[in-house]
């Protein structure tokens, strides 16, 4: 008799966005005249830039001819893309990453979810609280999380590191030794960043303890402040303790096109094994490369034209973030993130829970947000707003909130 | 100290295609005048058909506009594609598959590799010998294969089912009870198919033993003979014991574009859990949907025009397969497969090993094949030839072999 992976039955439902949708449509039904503005989900809305569109069309035309047809590509990604990444995302910032340390994929969510394949099941995993749920759920599925304690909204074997205004949104080192540590900067959901000193301290901790840092830099392109690390590999010592995840989703509007990449340095070894070689084996066995068409599109963002064009789109979203932050602050709210990030993390008024504040914003401003509690217990007392919407709608949303 | 998945260190190198490439380039260097014809690797060469190209261009243009932009899509695939699949791949053949039993992905290799995520680690896995290596390697990585016995070229905990001319290329039921059974029809590498009676017997076995059949139907479109099942779900009882993998790679030339799908019926339950719900949870947690552009391209093969066009390409390859089969038979070889498959499985002459015959074909006919031994011990005594090449080159290759 075949048996299933028993860990799946332990997973609580993932009701956050479903519950938001339910409450929103109940309100919309009762108030058909209301013009709702969505600032809840972290999905982009601006079109692909012309350079990317042109490159994708050209790639489709390649596949339409015998002479330029591309069948199976390298599972690790085409060199035209990996070389552009090494040059522009790293060497241009003074970081040397070899082409064979870069693994192109169909997106950072796949890589964040699959990376556990190469790790032992008895590692102790630490995550920030609040947190992007994929880190936790993927480890729970493979059995590293223990059991779910519904009352405390926590897994028994996961180490949760509170990440709140009180500690400047930089988690403290856990009391227990953590083997695998997920860090995300710029952070989803808080929109805050780790500075060089904070990230260096984490790299030192990892090297001292033999831990591996899973560094999620999906929102890297939103960094505008000088001195904020764009990559963990800017930090000395990171090559022996870190894996970095990058995405074209927010960088270039690829949430629907699908492309990302993961950097696994060759110095990263545990139990005498090279994690670069292990990830290479995992990808060549269980993945067949990202689409040629999409990789050509991704490579176009590294041309001078493409780079300028995506910068315009990024600036559009950054401006939305500024509008939200300044508007909410003017309305008297305590606001975090937004500066180096498309996410605005807004403290709810004293004594108001995050679901309660979500409802208030929905009903009084017709603005849809995400309750912070949905990202973990320490997200309680906050809501997340995103800067990915239409610029005019963003201005109007802020005006409505100020008028509340 | 973080620890790695110890099973990776047990994996033998995957040297088959590397060794073929090494021997081939050594020969080419020594004989620069030789015109080598590649019939080794199972990758398509014909361009995407016009209907697919047009649909992909239109989809790229969608992403280039605010109004028709598509961000995150459903992780399970867009309904426009899932509905076309349900209608044309199943309902048109009298098989009812619900849209929410279809999970679109970036390819069958990913799905075959990842499906183990939802299964317990102590299941006994059975595979055919010879076999597509992904079934074995992905289970070895997760610890279901035990240890590798290099001398016998076998994993200690995998059940190998010889699949040879002697048993008509239909594996016998294993002596041990097998919990998870991988079947592939039309088969890679042998090119043979399971008929309705054979497949029914396997479905009955699985239902009696609570086993799950992983049915790989990636080459389904090559079936031309009446009565050969295109889907395991044509067999009564399969909905309680089978998962089916499909691919657009060979169907429509998507090896570089990347798209496939997996069918998990809602009746399939083990340990009181729905495998459909589990796979849905796996995909929504660790995958973010196939590219919108590529899904639009895939959907175009279900239009009358697209269907006619891919049929032309398929017929081009089928004709190559016929040319190879008839030519080799005329030359006195014993040949299997080829009829319902792009693969031709050719018995080596009495007493000649598969690597030896590979070398003979390389040196005397300048034709590159794949030695059967590369697919498992019972592939010894065969070579695989593929029908995915240029039609003229295929004719020439066969003439050269006949002239040997």
TrEMBL record, chains A, B:
Pathway: Amino-acid biosynthesis; L-lysine biosynthesis via DAP pathway; LL-2,6-diaminopimelate from (S)-tetrahydrodipicolinate (aminotransferase route): step 1/1. It is an enzyme of class 2 (transferase). The keyword Mitochondrion does not apply. Gene3D superfamilies: Aspartate Aminotransferase, domain 1, Type I PLP-dependent aspartate aminotransferase-like (Major domain). GO terms for molecular function: L,L-diaminopimelate aminotransferase activity; pyridoxal phosphate binding. Keywords: Aminotransferase, Pyridoxal phosphate, Transferase. Its EC number is 2.6.1.83. One of its GO terms (biological process) is lysine biosynthetic process via diaminopimelate. It comes from the Bacteria. Residues 35-401 form the Aminotransferase class I/classII large domain. It holds the Pfam family Aminotran_1_2. It catalyses: (2S,6S)-2,6-diaminopimelate + 2-oxoglutarate = (S)-2,3,4,5-tetrahydrodipicolinate + L-glutamate + H2O + H(+). Its cofactor is pyridoxal 5'-phosphate. InterPro entries: Aminotransferase_I/II_large (IPR004839), DapL/ALD1 (IPR019942), PyrdxlP-dep_Trfase (IPR015424), PyrdxlP-dep_Trfase_major (IPR015421), PyrdxlP-dep_Trfase_small (IPR015422). HAMAP family: DapL_aminotrans_1 (MF_01642). This is LL-diaminopimelate aminotransferase. The lineage of its organism: Bacteria, Bacillati, Actinomycetota, Coriobacteriia, Eggerthellales.
